[in-house]
Design goal:
- The complex is a heterodimer of chains A (393) and B (98).
- With 393 residues, chain A is mainly beta.
- Chain A contains one helix and 29 strands.
- Chain A has one helix at 162-165, and strands spanning 3-10, 13-20, 27-32, 37-43, 51-57, 61-67, 110-112, 118-120, 125-131, 139-144, 147-151, 159-160, 181-187, 195-200, 203-207, 215-216, 238-243, 251-255, 259-262, 270-271, 280-286, 294-299, 314-317, 325-327, 345-347, 355-358, 364-367, 375-378, 384-392.
- A four-stranded antiparallel beta sheet of chain A has the order 3-2-1-29, with no helix packed on it.
- Chain B is an alpha+beta fold and 98 residues long.
- Chain B has one domain (2-93): Ubiquitin-like (UB roll), CATH 3.10.20.30.
- Chain B has three helices and five strands.
- Chain B has helices at 8-14, 30-40, 80-83; strands at residues 2-5, 20-22, 60-64, 67-68, 89-93.
- In chain B, strand 3 (60-64) and strand 4 form a beta hairpin.
- The relative contact order of chain B is 0.24.
- Classes of the chains: A mainly beta (393), B alpha+beta (98).
- The interface between A and B is medium-sized, with 29 and 27 residues.
Chain lengths: 393, 98
């Protein structure tokens, strides 16, 4: 029987939740890396026992951890006493340095700060790790200040793909309330070399050459309060993008305000917020087997980060947007004032698709029936930052 | 022999459960001790000193002999009691945040 493994990153450590295909009884392990902020952990599609973790702290900075046994043991890749040819120990797995070299990089350019002045890029943390679809040793990292890095040696060393940060629009990128983060990386399974990324607050970008060159794909996004120019190519606060792997040219986006879709690989976007009670929110996900079934969690507003009316409701559209239904069975429908962050929702690929999300109140909820009914797996974790799911044979 | 006490977060990361003992050639300074510490425990690189600048991270502090040494120059000699191993060098996460 198939199994699922839910990987949960929190403000004070990581947790691994495991169950069989029925998804009724759960075994909880953790906290792993107790006391550290775990922004994200994700397993390799090519080798599910390979899991990458972004571990960080305001005191001690960024660390990358890796498991090769499905989360039982962890180590900082390259952090052991491995000797280089020069005889010095390596320790490069934590090293994210913007590529400003004249040979391969871009100068350390500037971006717009909150006060309108220009600031140089400064590395803060890894928000998102996206393992390659085919190679367990290749993994991408989206970081703050916004840039994308790649490791091809299992996380031991990291190199920036500097074409993104060096895009001519860089001086117009600006931090959102959470910092200037690159939080979304989507690898296109149908078109080699194509990737999508999203940055708050710059917008969505696409590469068709494996990360060498990038261009903004934000036509149709409207941000009237932040960007008076209705045709602004960058500056949009994109919160999350999702795709179904069978139709990678169809993208769904939860923007700061507005839920959007693109049917042409980001060339143009149309609003599909429809009858949502509010179109502000963070995560968006696609059903594993129904490419037109999507999920969001509406949040009251950008100043009130909790569900409207104190009712925690996931909204599902079976029509790719416009028409939405509230999913409430098993979720708190009074006095609930948690948030669900952008990386904190995921789906499994069992026959009856499972949906999972975590809250800033420390609950992880699961539905084994595409969202019709919900139950909590755990209720009292630290604030949940990210949720990923692995479906295992 | 120099003794270094790490904060709990870094003990976990370095897989040590007690103070660290280091052979530091030459004069004992913050820089020479941290160089040897990072060579012995490479996973600590970047956690005490920034990777790019080599500067002490803002919320990391150094104490020894009841003195705050955080703002001493990296090449200033450490107190004799630290250099002889009578007292440890404490690496501390500053009281900040949650």
């Amino acid at each position: 029987m198939s199994k699922v493994r839910v990987l949960v990153g929190t403000k004070k450590g990581a947790f691994v939740l495991a169950s069989d295909g029925k998804r009724k009884r759960w075994k909880v392990s953790g906290p792993h890396f107790a006391g550290w902020e775990i922004y994200h952990l994700k397993g390799s599609p090519a080798d599910p026992n390979r899991i990458y973790v972004s571990q960080s702290s305001g005191w001690f900075g960024q660390v990358i951890q890796r498991s090769d046994d499905g989360g039982r043991t962890w180590d900082a890749p390259g952090g052991g006493v491995t000797m280089s040819p020069e005889g010095m120990p390596k320790g490069e797995s934590n090293k994210f340095v913007y590529d400003a070299s004249p040979e391969t990089g871009k100068p350390l350019t500037t971006h717009q700060f909150y006060d309108g002045t220009q600031r140089p890029w400064e590395f803060k943390r890894v928000w998102h790790l996206e393992p390659s679809l085919a190679d367990p040793d290749t993994v991408y990292a989206g970081v703050e200040d916004a840039a994308i890095f790649r490791s091809t040696d299992g996380g031991q060393t990291w190199q920036e793909l500097p074409g993104l940060r060096g895009h001519e629009s860089g001086p117009k990128w600006q931090p959102g309330a959470g910092g200037m983060c690159l939080h979304t990386i989507l690898l296109d399974p149908g078109t080699p070399g194509r990737m999508f990324i999203a940055i708050s607050a710059a917008g969505a970008f696409r590469t068709d050459d494996g990360g060498g060159t990038w261009r903004p794909v934000n036509r149709g996004l409207k941000s009237p309060y932040a960007l008076p120019d209705p045709d602004a190519q960058v500056g949009h606060c994109v919160h999350r993008i999702a795709m179904h792997r069978s139709r990678p040219h169809v993208l769904f986006m939860q923007k700061h305000w507005d839920v959007m879709r693109s049917d042409d690989a980001g060339e143009s976007w149309q609003e599909v917020s429809g009858n949502l009670p509010t179109d502000f929110g963070f995560p968006i996900e696609v059903h594993a087997h129904e490419p037109e079934t999507i999920y969001v969690v509406p949040i009251k507003s950008d100043s009130e980060h909790f569900p409207p009316e104190g009712k925690l409701r996931v909204y599902r559209s079976r029509t790719g947007g416009h028409e939405w239904e509230a999913l409430t069975k098993g979720l708190p429908q009074r006095d609930c004032y948690v948030n669900v962050l952008r990386d904190a929702m995921a789906v499994d690929s069992l026959d009856s698709c499972g949906i999972y999300f975590g809250t800033t109140g420390g609950q992880v909820y699961a539905s084994a029936d595409s969202g019709d009914t919900w139950a909590s797996i755990v209720r009292d974790l630290p604030a949940v930052l990210s949720v990923e799911v692995q479906t295992l044979p | 022999m120099i003794r270094v006490v790490l904060p709990a977060h870094l003990k976990t990361l370095a897989h040590v459960d007690r103070e660290v003992k280091l052979d530091v050639p030459g004069r004992a300074t913050q820089r020479s001790v941290l160089d040897v510490l990072e060579a012995s425990y490479p996973m600590l690189r970047g956690t005490i000193r920034d990777h790019a600048t080599g500067q002490r991270r803002p919320f990391v502090r150094f104490f020894a002999c009841s003195e705050d040494l955080s703002h001493e120059l990296p090449d200033a000699p450490l107190p004799d009691a630290v250099a002889t191993g009578a007292e440890p060098l404490l690496v501390v996460g500053a009281m900040a945040g949650g």
